[in-house]
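Loading example: each entry is read as two labelled lines plus one structure line.
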Amino acid sequence: MTVALRYLRESIAPLVPMRERTAVEASLGRALLEDVTALRNIPHYRASAVDGYALRATMTAGASPARPVRLSLETCQWVNTGGLVEPSFDAVVMVEDTSLDGSELLVSKAITVGANVRPPGDDVMRGQIIAREGDVVTPQHQALLRAAGVEGLLIRALPRTLYLPTGDEILPVSYEGPLPAGTVPETNSILLRGLFSRWGFPLTVGDIIPDDPARLRQALEKNMDAYDLLLVGAGSAKGKKDYTAEVFSSLGDLLFRWVRTRPGRPAMAARIKGKPVLCLPGFPMSSVVVAMGIVFPLLAHLQGLPAEEEKALSRALGSFGSEEGELLFAHSSPPGVEEWLRCQMIQIRGKTIVWPLPGGASSMRAMSEADGVAIIAEEKLECPKGMKILLHKSKEISLERRILFQGSNDPAVERLISPIRRLGCDMVMRSVGSVGGLAALSRGECHLAACHLIDPETQSYNDSYIVRFRGNAQWRRRQLFFRQQGLIVAKGNPKGISSVEDLARPDLSIVNRQPGAGTRVLLDYLLTEKNIAPSFVKGYDRQCITHLDAASRVAYGLADVALGIKMAAEAMDLDFLPITEEPYEIVYPEECHDHPGIVAFLEALEDQQWRAEIDKIGGYRWIC
Amino acid sequence: MTVALRYLRESIAPLVPMRERTAVEASLGRALLEDVTALRNIPHYRASAVDGYALRATMTAGASPARPVRLSLETCQWVNTGGLVEPSFDAVVMVEDTSLDGSELLVSKAITVGANVRPPGDDVMRGQIIAREGDVVTPQHQALLRAAGVEGLLIRALPRTLYLPTGDEILPVSYEGPLPAGTVPETNSILLRGLFSRWGFPLTVGDIIPDDPARLRQALEKNMDAYDLLLVGAGSAKGKKDYTAEVFSSLGDLLFRWVRTRPGRPAMAARIKGKPVLCLPGFPMSSVVVAMGIVFPLLAHLQGLPAEEEKALSRALGSFGSEEGELLFAHSSPPGVEEWLRCQMIQIRGKTIVWPLPGGASSMRAMSEADGVAIIAEEKLECPKGMKILLHKSKEISLERRILFQGSNDPAVERLISPIRRLGCDMVMRSVGSVGGLAALSRGECHLAACHLIDPETQSYNDSYIVRFRGNAQWRRRQLFFRQQGLIVAKGNPKGISSVEDLARPDLSIVNRQPGAGTRVLLDYLLTEKNIAPSFVKGYDRQCITHLDAASRVAYGLADVALGIKMAAEAMDLDFLPITEEPYEIVYPEECHDHPGIVAFLEALEDQQWRAEIDKIGGYRWIC
């Protein structure tokens, strides 16, 4: 992408700065296009620098604390700091060096001519340059300029950008009623508007252009003169991109197609009438990557600002700074591309840990949940666990007050995040299953794990697993609640499923959870109990990592049944056949007991609003 | 100030969050007050994850590159990435794994049911929480929320702040015509508006309240209910502050008077009807210090956010980050107060150097020119040269492209800053006199020095001084121009001054420049030439550090005559009696020759616009 950007910079000349006259009050953050000189002195009169008495210096000759000089109050004048020193006086004695005795002033210090008097122009002289070409106006400038009598400023006009969404399948976001299958609401312009607004640049969004080269061509020709930068939002279709390139080529020079970046690869740029025209990929995250990595620096280039790549990236991402952390797990980066990873970050035992969120360029959720972006260089392929990477933050995060939960997925615990936040802390979660959580805790990779693991030998929950993973460490345990596990089946139970035995029916297929998930351990236990071999269960190998995900497979007919909790069935409007009740337990190391996040977690468990919400959904029984 | 702030936090309860409903599009940067659940699935239909052909997976059984499966195109359907996979199909084969042969499709890979098909809800499921209470809305959230069918959000209303300027001497900034002596334009509200706007908080500014306790009381009572925070802008008068405290006490509890901070000491706070009311000091810089150090964190506290002092300071200053540097010269900090220094910063030979700008709390110019603020802790008194201090930046600065000029003050060189900036670089200047500049250069404390120093022995300029200071270092020299030095006298020369000899007249007083200034060296040379001892020259010991400053003393009748350059006389509309012409020369170390700032400086010397400007003013003669 850096190469693409450099090539763009070479191919497109910066704009001749367009001038705009504006009031000082409306100039915050804008760049001056001329030196500004003061129109009046500050102060514009002889002002006292202190609270005290204006007088003639000669009158204080010989004064000392031991032998104060006595003056009639009529020969001097009280003056406040900043007040006018009348022409008949040439100095001000500080009030601290005087005392009053009836109508007489006792002065205990001899002062010289001009003492404590600020001459006109002491701070700023009329005609003096007080702000310069290139200054970006701050609140401090604004106050100074107005104080110096300046009203209007010549500032650099901002580059004008037009975004044109395209695609037959794209509907306006304001579309009323349910979306037809195969259509996509036009949300990329919302994303871009937000980014442009953060950056302080204007953005105009055009109407959606259908998949018709003539229409795109027409739209570009019509708007070429009124804008400095045109962005075309591609739909996701391969055919479409081809015609965009064709249209670009027919109007000007195609500068590049594809960039070596993931996501963001299908970006494209042309120079039409000397102006840059970019095609942004349709996937939201791809669009963000190209917006931050190319569009923002290009806006800076158009303004004639120097190419400072590190700084541009930090500003493009929102100026929340960057922070180094160690990769939580190994990551393979595809060869030949620079990869932008959406990551979350945590601090644990003084170590900062970073991990990429799952989901491709199409995932709006991962994009939204990420704390920021880490960039894996093109030449980097295998990134081992523990490798240091730099996270460019796009949010303000408070690492000291945030905990990482790894373990069994549970929607009730997920809902604890808000009460924890109300207590000024935060929790991020990774659903890695009960066993995965205990293993992560034993490696010191989370503050908190949760499990519901039945031991087939003893038929008791959790104890044997915790003992195994804990080793010599001190861990605290706490049971949160019992929850019902059961069979999630389609509404009305059309296949007449009634028990675990039915899972072996050849006309049924299930969806399972990942190895190490407590629910999968439970399924294995239940199957063993009924003497059913997994190979007789159709779909046993199809895995989901959350209850809700499993339920959704049932809801969309991809499976007939899943073992899971009642809340997931309810959320998907499915039927639920209770099988058993299990204890859900959290575990955390002794040394985390005082962590503000753990303290908040434990306090949040008593949150009545949260409990009432869970009770309403049902399928949970409180332990106390 | 930290103590004052903590006390305020303890005394004032955070606001009960006020709720506000807003459109997703208008919610950027605002905090959510509730969890938000998706109203529809993303995708909301079975979508293809690739460009390819939708088909039934069983049709591909046994396919391999060596033995592709042949299918009629009628049994499958082309589908774009993101496109609808019709219910009759259960998988999508990537276009890369196919080829066309007439009306037949050759599939070279066997795929399983569900391959490359994203089920509905694959990214986001209806009913799933997609943004949480406490989230600060990002562009990414906005796009996600709208894609999930969410239109409105419940967000935290921002605290409402009212600023009430006070003071009989304060005039509206829009005041027409010349300001009467002793009045001050009301610019603190402009400063506060700018700061609030950067912070993202609303600010209402009231009318100026005259110095009348009853009027202030009335204004507070009237606005108490409509605002969450009231700020009273004190004039600078001591008497006034007294009555403000009185009014505060009569309406509620006075929490503190004075803070141990400089500037900013006269801050005051009260709790009236449970709400915080602050009195901001009148001097602009004092007002900024209290705004950043108390008002901003208080706004965070009112919103119930945790007290994160470091972060709050960085955000209050504008999120330009902080950087450590070494003090350029020793600084004495007053005892018992935390001192906020307005500083500039430079990088030289890999070392970062910081220095405080001169001027007290009243200086709007220093406030505006500073790169940021360094805070000297209360217990720190003597800060030796080279001490590390942390600069909290309030501007974006590019240290690699910036040079520091130290040396003789010259207005023409000052005007070079803009052409240098047009070349993408920057220059900051310290007027330390010709000798001071050479000394700084010899210590490696600037990139560039300038001098015009006559050697009384040889009557030649600069050579002997440069040889003395250079030592073994390699320095480059370049003469920029000749400039006229002469006597600056009042308009019309009322005292009939005609030559250097007149400076000894008992009815005249002069203003001199600081020791080491080339102009002072010249004066000494001229006096020696005429056999006049300095003790015969009245005002010989009164010092200014710039030509303009010296001229202004003459303009305001504080002196009758000063030696200086023609430009300064012109700027102040004074008369000028030429005495001599001197060469003005710059010097820089060999190793700085390639510094982008020096390159830009040398290039800027050829700037025709700059030369024309200087020619217009007059008193300069170009060397080439």
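The first strand of chain B starts at residue 19 and ends at 23.
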